[in-house]
Fold this protein.
Amino acid sequence: MVSPPRSAEGHRARAGEQATGNRDNDRFQLAVEAVGTREMAGAIGSHQAEARSGWCEHGITIGAEHRCKGYAAEAAELLLRFMFAEHRFHKCQVRIFAHNEASLALHRRLGLVEESRLRELVYLSGRHRDVVVTGLLAEEFAQLHPTTT
């Protein structure tokens, strides 16, 4: 999905708004840093969070030159551990484009399971695409990814 171009001033203004706006500790965006180079490899964030019901949703993107190096898996596991253990969420879900096999495989390895498929929900690259909704419960995550002490 393509957003309209933003000027450098537009990026600065948006960053300033985010830095000085009201804080929502359950919704955030973090940079994923490449090991050794300290280059930004991508981003991960919790962009939906419903504390009262106990669910959150995350999204992740990794630049093409940094893919298949474990950055997405490590970042997602850290985010899930934080949301489940520190913020005590009960469930995390992720919406993934059905044609994004790499992301589907990553989230399956993390323990997320397909819960639904939203047929032809988005228009992307000249055609309508399905979106797969995946989910993971806190207790499932704890079993699959025990903490080491």
User: Anything to note?
Assistant: Residues 45-144 form a domain with the Aminopeptidase fold (CATH 3.40.630.30). The mean pLDDT is 89.
